Amino acid sequence: MNTQAQVIVVGAGPVGQTAALLLARWGIQVLVLDQRPGRGTVGSKSICQQRDVLDIWAAAGAGKVAEEGLAWTTARTYFRDRELLSWSFEREGPLPACVNISQTRTEQILDEAIAAQPLIEVRWNHQVTGLTQDDSGTIVHCGQRLLRAPYVLACAGARAQPVRQALGVTFDGETFDDQFLICDIKADLPGWENERRFYFDPVWNPGRQVLIHPCPGGTFRIDWQIAPDYIPTDTDISRKIRQIIGDRSYELLWRTTYRFHSRIASRMRVGRVLLAGDCAHLVAPFGARGLNSGVPDAENAAWKLAFALNGWAGDDLLETYHIERHAAARENLEITAATMRFLAPRTVEERMRRRAVLEGGVVEEVDSGRFAEPYWYVDSPLTTPEPGRPFRGRPPRGALCVPAPGVILPDMRVPGGRLRELCRDGFLVLLGDMCDSRLFAQVLGKVITVPLAVRGLAEVDGTGSLAERLGAEPGEAWLIRPDSHIAAIIPHAGPELVVDAVSRALRGSADT
């Protein structure tokens, strides 16, 4: 029954793969279980990956996702044949704002990284039928097979009802009636290679939507909203594709239909078991908030489990996984629910509002899905607030957020690499020019036992660009978490104030 694993990861999809790689990066032995006989090889599935997720994958050893993905730059939105609006991402750092790449290829890249990691074992044909746990560990039931480890991270997807049921976790929400037809095609569409196009009520899909994404290798992903009872035939699909691309030649690579769900688990942590990704939350895909939320779940869980297993933190830190990521899931549900009310209105009032917005060209009220952003832990118990640097709210579409406690650290090129590459091995203290980094390192090293590095801003980047991008003052100390979020910005900083901030970032308060 016993295994060598310190964490059993249930589910070998991208969220489970990411979690395993990040845990192994912390030196944790991982066993990954999946009920399937092996890896699927076709289908785009989740295609749009946001910059901060690309950063996580780079830290996990899967930087090829960003390298191979197609970095589209402009999002265009149409009402029938009239363009309503377009927007582009602000460029920051060496990674693109997002890339499109098929989930199938992403999984292959992650598999390559896992194969090179001796601390990870993957077992297929292991369907989890139940979970039990006690004070010393968890037991994963795979039929008659029992596997024991100190912790379990469940990344088993939307159909992981046996796992949720064993934990007493509900999965409340709703399923939308309308279906969506997805096709991956290969075609030559000049001018469309770097643009995402969203059509409200086009003449070739009246009353509903169509979304077109460019992908690597001259391929495109097309999503049609279709009626709940519509069964597409090969002839229908060919006709729909022709209505968009005309008489150009094309190759149909993959097709499927699906319905959207909006659901959230009542708990994302139950004792020694954490839930992540679609196992814990489901959202409509407009805005690409599914996998782009599941991967940060994996990162948040990985560093906290590693700290618990290494004796650097206790139960309080693990509970903040639920606090932080459940709040992130709730925010995504709120945003995508508003989008779905606009895309698929259910009441007379919602239909009238949508019609007025689209026909009147009220651009600021058009909702085709706010693109995925990292959740910022402004209200987390691990964040030390600073009144002089309040969170200023969500920036305009495509824009960058002003740094503040709880917000993710901006990324940028620094001598030797990227700024966030300095953050992944523990806590990082960045000091302004008036702070003595040697003194801070000596004092902090005597009282802090968790991995922690102290660097002066000028030491990291002597050009002054880093301090300017952060808006950092000479006497400030910036405490950065292992997941690159800003835990504290301390004005007039002394070592003892940094100790308090680290204590809070490990336990949720500075005096425990």
UniProtKB/TrEMBL annotation:
<dbReference type="InterPro" id="IPR036188">
    <property type="entry name" value="FAD/NAD-bd_sf"/>
</dbReference>
<dbReference type="InterPro" id="IPR002938">
    <property type="entry name" value="FAD-bd"/>
</dbReference>
<keyword id="KW-0560">Oxidoreductase</keyword>
<keyword id="KW-0274">FAD</keyword>
<feature type="domain" description="FAD-binding">
    <location>
        <begin position="5"/>
        <end position="334"/>
    </location>
</feature>
<protein>
    <submittedName>
        <fullName>FAD-dependent monooxygenase</fullName>
    </submittedName>
</protein>
<dbReference type="InterPro" id="IPR050641">
    <property type="entry name" value="RIFMO-like"/>
</dbReference>
<dbReference type="GO" id="GO:0004497">
    <property type="term" value="F:monooxygenase activity"/>
</dbReference>
<keyword id="KW-0503">Monooxygenase</keyword>
<keyword id="KW-0285">Flavoprotein</keyword>
<dbReference type="Pfam" id="PF01494">
    <property type="entry name" value="FAD_binding_3"/>
</dbReference>
